[in-house]
TrEMBL record:
<comment type="similarity">
    <text>Belongs to the leucine-binding protein family.</text>
</comment>
<keyword id="KW-0732">Signal</keyword>
<dbReference type="InterPro" id="IPR028081">
    <property type="entry name" value="Leu-bd"/>
</dbReference>
<feature type="domain" description="Leucine-binding protein">
    <location>
        <begin position="35"/>
        <end position="369"/>
    </location>
</feature>
<protein>
    <submittedName>
        <fullName>Amino acid/amide ABC transporter substrate-binding protein, HAAT family (TC 3.A.1.4.-)</fullName>
    </submittedName>
</protein>
<dbReference type="InterPro" id="IPR051010">
    <property type="entry name" value="BCAA_transport"/>
</dbReference>
<dbReference type="Pfam" id="PF13458">
    <property type="entry name" value="Peripla_BP_6"/>
</dbReference>
<dbReference type="InterPro" id="IPR028082">
    <property type="entry name" value="Peripla_BP_I"/>
</dbReference>
<feature type="signal peptide">
    <location>
        <begin position="1"/>
        <end position="23"/>
    </location>
</feature>
Length: 407
């Protein structure tokens, strides 16, 4: 009898230790011993390599900041697996399938290209995994192509358009505006939302020019703009064959036409030397936001990369901070349904201040900045100087998710 009781006590004690160990690993259905796997999918080569690398750096720094250097959240380690889309949609789809089906990631983040993002969205829905988009900015990603697994921490082109219209109308109510943009999907997608944004503010788009993307002589296009006599010319251009020099040579300012644009990444700013004094807006420039998050980012980026953070570094950091904020709120639960419920309407911090995911389409609503390009000694490009912060609600885009989309 004594032996039986002793054996029972031993078994009971062993079972107690086993259950205690299990409890340490599992809390609320979450296995704390398993890492949270994040699939980073972006342009690490190809046409948008610079954008993708900026996002990657920002995301990794954002995880460091948001987890206070522990690289874990709610007791679970964070593991990031990066894949290169090569800025080719078919490759993006293939690499996303690998992350979802082979690596079994819990969350996707990226990409840089809107076309890459479009190729991935249905996979997020198929595998029932949340994707957090940054910096791809096409409106349709949180509009007609949207599904309930899609969240976007970056701004979209409609927010850019509203910011540009806001700057123009703030300086000249009722302004007449012309646009100069490449004859490409990018160029036209950036101009289209400007029309409505200007009309909503009482201004008018009176003239448009769409030179081929490979144009080197912009003279005929600029002369037609000059003849149209707008108050403002909004220029949308990317690439080495830019119109800035010819715009200055043809002296639109003396014809009463102010040139404006969105301040781009640093590499493109280097080509805008003739545009010192130009007004415009920016999504981010390292010296514009004044807050502790951005101060940390600038200091840490200089320390680690011997350079200042760029346009899409900020977006990568915001993406990481949104992911960590959501996981903290779920207690480390990366289940898509829990994340969707948590992230809808969720506020999170970023290098440009507070943002929140709009419940209806999961688009991040955020402030942008009115700036003027200035010359700064020792800096090899025009430096955006803050004029004012454009309030987030003033540039919130229209909700364009289909009415029959599953919420």
């Amino acid at each position: 009898m004594k032996r039986a009781i002793s054996l029972l006590l031993v078994i009971t004690f062993a079972l107690s230790l086993f259950l205690t160990g299990c409890a340490g690993k599992t809390t609320g259905g979450v296995d704390k011993s398993e890492p949270i796997r994040i699939g980073g999918i972006t342009s690490l080569s190809g046409a948008l390599q610079d954008y993708g690398q900026q996002m990657q750096r920002g995301f990794e720094l954002g995880l460091e900041y948001a987890t206070k250097g522990t690289m874990e959240v709610a007791g679970r380690k964070i593991e990031v697996i990066w894949e290169d889309t090569t800025t080719v949609p078919d490759v993006a789809r293939e690499r996303a399938i690998k992350l979802l089906d082979v690596d079994k990631v819990d969350i996707l983040v990226g990409p840089a290209s809107s076309s890459d993002a479009a190729a991935i969205l249905e996979l997020a829905e198929e595998f029932k995994k949340v994707i957090v988009i940054d910096p791809a900015a096409a409106d349709f990603l949180t509009g007609p192509a949207w599904n309930r697994y899609t969240f976007c921490t970056g701004r979209n082109s409609a927010q850019d358009a509203k910011a540009m219209a806001n700057v123009i109308i703030n300086n000249k109510p009722g302004a007449k505006v012309a646009t100069l943009a490449p004859d490409s999907a990018f160029g036209r997608s950036m101009v289209d939302p400007v029309v409505g944004a200007l009309q909503d503010g009482g201004a008018e788009l009176i003239h448009q020019e769409f030179p081929p993307a490979e144009t080197t002589d912009f003279t005929p296009y600029i002369l037609r703009i000059r003849e149209a006599k707008p108050d403002y010319l909004y220029v949308i251009w990317a690439g080495a064959n830019n119109p800035w020099g010819q715009l200055m040579e043809l002296d639109l300012e003396s014809h009463g036409i102010k040139i404006t644009t969105g301040a781009p990444e640093i590499a493109a700013l280097r080509m805008m030397q003739p545009m010192i004094g130009m007004p415009g807006f920016t999504v981010y420039y390292n010296s514009v936001p004044q807050n502790p998050v951005n101060d940390w980012l600038v200091e840490k980026h200089k320390e680690k990369y011997n350079s200042v953070p760029d346009l899409f570094t900020s977006g990568g950091m915001a993406c990481a901070m949104a992911v960590v904020t959501a996981l903290e709120k779920t207690g480390g639960n990366a289940d898509a349904e829990e994340l969707i419920k948590t992230m809808r309407g969720m506020e999170f911090d970023s290098p440009t201040g507070k943002r929140y995911f709009r419940e209806e389409d999961h688009q991040a609503i955020q402030p942008l900045y009115e700036i003027v390009l200035t010359e700064v000694d020792g800096v090899d490009h025009p430096v955006p100087k803050l004029v004012r912060e454009i309030p987030a609600e003033d540039i919130a885009p229209a909700i364009t998710v289909p009415a029959d989309a599953k919420r």
